[in-house]
Amino acid sequence: MLFKQQALLRQKLFVLGSLVIGSVLYLVARVGTLDRLQPICPIESRFHPPEPEQIPLRTLQFKRGLLHELRKGNATKDQIRLHNLVQQLPRAIIIGVRKGGTRALLEMLNLHPAVVKASQEIHFFDNDKNYARGIDWYRGKMPFSLPHQITIEKSPAYFITEEVPERIFKMNSSIKLLIIVREPTTRAVSDYTQVLEGKERKNKTYHKFENLAIDANTCEVNTKYKAVRTSIYTKHLERWLKYFPVEQFHIVDGDRLITDPLPELQLVERFLNLPSRISQYNLYFNATRGFYCLRFNIVFNKCLAGSKGRIHPEVDLSVVTKLQKFFHPFNQKFYQITGRTFNWP
Ligand code: A3P
C-alpha cells in the first residue's frame, strides 16, 4: 500500500515537473521569437511593414509577356486565337482631371490582374477627327485582353470638352467614370508648369503664372485662363450630370494618391467591383523620385516618367490666397454633389 502511494506521488511529481520545464522552455522560445520579430526601434516597423501576399505571378507575367508583345504588335494571329484574346471597349474611363494624377492612377490600376490599360491617350471623344472614324477605330486602339479582364483608358481632356459626355453616353450609358482631383490651385500651377516647360523647350516667350491667373485690369481671378477654368471642377461635372447619375462617378483624391496610394486604389477596386488585389507589395516609395513607384513582381518594377512630378515655380502668396478664395464656393458645391469632402482651403 505504502509502495503504491509512493509510486503515485512520484508520478504526480513527474507530471508537475514536466509542466514546469515545458512552460519555461516555451517562455524562453517565445522571448527569443519576439526579439527577432520586433525591431529594436519601433519606428522602423512603420517604414518596413510586413510584405503582404504577392499578386499571382502568372497573370502578371502574362501581362508582361504576351499582352506586352501584342501591344508592340509582335504576336501572331494564331497566338491571339489560341489565348482567346480580344480588344474590348473600355468599361471604365479616367476622364480627368488633367494634372490630377491621371497617369499614376492608370498605371497603378494596371497592377490589378483583371485590368488592362490603353497605354496611350486615345482622344476619341474629344477630337472630332478621331470621333468621325467611328467606334471600330476606337476599339482597334484598345489593348488585347482576356475576356474576363476590363479595359481602362484615360484622356483627361474628356472632362472639360463640351461634346464628350453625350458621346460617351451613346457608346455605353452604364460606363464607370473616374475623376482624379487635386487641390484646385495646386492643380492650376501644375498645369501652368507643364505648359511652361513646353514653351521653354521651344524657346518661346511665356508669362508668369501670376500674370495669367489674375486679370491686370480688374485685379480679379482671370476665368478666361484655361488652367483656372479646369480647376472649377463643379462646373464641368454639372455638364456630365446631365447624362450620367452621380453614382456612375468615382472621385479619386489625387493628393492622397501621391502620399498614400493604396487606400485610394482600394476604393477604386471596390467601385469597379473588382476583388481587392493591389497590395502594399506593389507600391514602394522611391526616395530619389520622391514618389511611389510600381512593383509588378520580383523582377519588374517601374517609376513614372520624369515629366510626372515637376518642380513648381514659386507663386506670389497673395495670388495663391486669391485663387483659393475664388475656388472655395465651387469646391463646397463639388463636395455637396459628389459626397466626397477634401481639406482644401
Ligand atoms: P506634378 O508634376 O505637378 O507634380 P497627370 O498624370 O494627370 O498629368 O498628373 C501629373 C501629376 O501626377 C504630377 O503632378 C504628380 O504630382 C502626380 N503623381 C501622383 N502620383 C505620382 C507618382 N507615383 N509618380 C509621379 N507623379 C505622380
UniProtKB/TrEMBL annotation:
SUPFAM superfamilies: P-loop containing nucleoside triphosphate hydrolases (SSF52540). GO terms for cellular component: Golgi membrane. 3'-phosphoadenylyl sulfate binds at residues 99-103, 182, 190, 292, 308-312. It comes from Cyprinodon variegatus. It catalyses: alpha-D-glucosaminyl-[heparan sulfate](n) + 3'-phosphoadenylyl sulfate = 3-sulfo-alpha-D-glucosaminyl-[heparan sulfate](n) + adenosine 3',5'-bisphosphate + H(+). It is an enzyme of class 2 (transferase). Pfam families: Sulfotransfer_1. This is Sulfotransferase. The chain crosses the membrane at residues 12-29. InterPro entries: NST/OST, P-loop_NTPase, Sulfotransferase_dom. It is a single-pass type II membrane protein. Disulfide bonds join 293-303. One of its GO terms (molecular function) is [heparan sulfate]-glucosamine 3-sulfotransferase activity. Its EC number is 2.8.2.-. Keywords: Disulfide bond, Glycoprotein, Golgi apparatus, Membrane, Signal-anchor, Transferase, Transmembrane, Transmembrane helix. Belongs to the sulfotransferase 1 family. It comes from the Eukaryota.
